[in-house]
Write a structure and sequence with these properties.
By secondary structure, the protein is of the alpha/beta class. Helix content is 42%, strand content 16%. The protein contains eight helices and eight strands. The chain has helices spanning 13-26, 48-68, 83-89, 97-108, 122-132, 157-172, 189-196, 203-216; strands spanning 2-7, 31-36, 72-75, 94-96, 112-116, 138-143, 177-181, 200-202. The strands form two sheets. It has a four-stranded parallel sheet with strand order 2-1-3-4, with helices on both faces. α1 (13-26) crosses α8 and α4 (97-108) crosses α8. The longest helix is centred in the first third of the chain and has 21 residues, at 48-68. The model has no long low-confidence stretch (mean pLDDT 97). The structure holds 1-(2,5-dioxo-2,5-dihydro-1H-imidazol-4-yl)urea.
Length: 245
Amino acid sequence: SLCIQLINPNTSQAMTEVMAQTARSVAAPQTHILAVCPEEGAPSIEGHFDEAIATLGVLQQIKAGRDAGVDGHIIACFGDPGLLAARELARAPVIGIAEAAMHLATMLATRFSIVTTLPRTLTIARHLLHQYGFERHCAALHAIDLPVLSLEDGSGLAQEKVREQCIAAKKSDGSGAIVLGCGGMADLAQELTIELNIPVIDGVSAAVKMVESLAALRLTTSKHGDLDYPLEKPLSGRFAGLNLR
Ligand SMILES: NC(=O)NC1=NC(=O)NC1=O
């Protein structure tokens, strides 16, 4: 059996639960989802500053998962915060939900659109497209202009805005698939795929299946070169716990 550590980099338990439920709904029968979030940090991640704060918590969770011997780690925030640092620390695969969703979209359509939360996080999504080499595959990016935690306020307003933006994107962007740009949207993808009749992709689900695939192929994070374990040095104070030895 497989154990996949699902890390919500923000500290909102409700969002962790939404992702965990979606992850478990697509996981293979023998796959266990261990859903965690940092003990301290930001309740939502909505910019470069929040991502910097969240990265320490992500690394602490990666270390804990590594010590627990998990078979893979998922960074479940659309900025993929700390992804490469996490890959240095980890032995098992580390998948970010943005890269996972983007990869799947490129296998299903020649162009995809992204629907995310606040306009200021569009820049972060653009940076990831550049980093992953998907700029030419992304036709357009849209924001619902609501904060991340509006997805958890129970009003359904954010969910309706996501739906409206997806419908508009399908009509206007000339893209054949849509990537949902927030971990908190994980539970919306399947219904929207049916209603819009195009692939609407959630990165949490995509990442679960990618970790399962990599595990089945016995492929793990390369430790040759820049993703080798961090050089050993006396980390001090709150960072001491990140020493691998
Ligand atoms: N673009 C985003 O909404 N990123 C996110 N912030 C969070 O706290 N979780 C996300 O997925």
